[in-house]
Design goal:
The complex is a heterodimer. By secondary structure, chain A is an alpha+beta fold. Helix content of chain A is 20%, strand content 30%. In chain A, the strands form four sheets. A nine-stranded mixed beta barrel of chain A has the order 1-2-3-4-5-6-9-10-11. Chain A has a two-stranded antiparallel sheet with strand order 7-8. A two-stranded antiparallel sheet of chain A has the order 12-13. Chain A starts with a helix and ends with a strand. The chains are: A alpha+beta, B alpha+beta. The interface between A and B is large, with 65 and 63 residues.
Amino acid sequence: MRKVHMALLATALVVGGGAAGGEPELNSPPTAKDWAAIARLPDWSGVWTPYVSDQNRRIKSDPTPWRPEAAKQIATMEAEEKAGRPRGLFIDCLPEGMPAWMLITHNAFEILFTPGRVTLLGEMDGNRIRRIYTDGRGHPPDPDPTFHGHSIGHWEGDTLVVDTVGVLPEAWLAVSEAVGLPNNGDLHVIERIHLQGPERLHDDLEIIAPKVLSAPWKTTRIYFRQRARKYDIVEGVCLQGGMATRQDEFGNWLYVPIPQEDGNPVPPK
Amino acid sequence: MNSTPIRTLCMAVSLWVVAGLAPAVAHHSFAMFDFSKVVTISGTVKEFQWTNPHVILWIDADAGAGEAPAVWSLELTSPGNLTRGGWDRKAVSAGDRVTVDLNPLRNGNHGGALIKVTDETTGKSFSTNLRASEKPGLQ
């Protein structure tokens, strides 16, 4: 009986281990050489804060090549924003995702290098994270779509080239917090991230979104390095902002929703 | 910090829902505020909520010219951004007498985007000009 169980288990491992029934793909333990290689990468330490004024300028200087039917929707949204009636793309606190995080964030992030990985950690929408695999792997053939997609990267000199696919169709291609459209599927983002001078990080983006764009959209986003500790990344849980703390009749501290009107908090009673 | 019993609060929330103001959360654009106008109010801090994505300051505003006293909701950027601008979660506290400059809501409700808050007793003020921090190596 035990032998039968072992045989079944072995079969299950083989079937589950690899697409072609071969050896399972493993994340190998890093070697001393892998850690030493990190020391030769450019210094991206510190906290990076976005150049928001430049984000706004580039809306005009690097216009988004919307498809005609998308451009009509965008024109309506821009008129609504100008009239002070923004719908707000992120009002439900779902992650900004890719590429909106890089395009329109007002919040800081940091970048960690570990063997085979570059990781971006940021504030807002539940302590956002991007995992960029630099261990030579490719994209999975059919990744489960996520807000940030599946990212692989490689170094070309001191530039990290990142390729992202597998982003949810619902993730916003955002021009601002109030204007943008869902990418609607088949999104592909190529980024070239590099230092421009000692204290500025540039992300040169090429956004390919065939459902809503008529051509790849090329634009750049700029971040400033901060080293003062008061700039350290803090926790950022977006949903918390819709809650007030109150005590119940037992003295327990609880979150209760703050009533809102068009995203604006109504004064608490 | 207020200690309103939760049942009363829940009842108030349901009344709001009935009134058509559905609870939602807000990581929103600031286009609802009229940045061409500056309004100044004086009053007492009711509550200072230090949360993402937007810090909220509620003020029990004094009666103004032709205006009855009212509670104002003032929104600010995130705790992280404000900390970098010199704020902390105790920058203002419930009961403080303050004067606030704000960009008002376009719809005329008692709310706005906070520009500057000044403690009337100590004279200390905090402002929210994020553009001032658009450079590297800030101290």
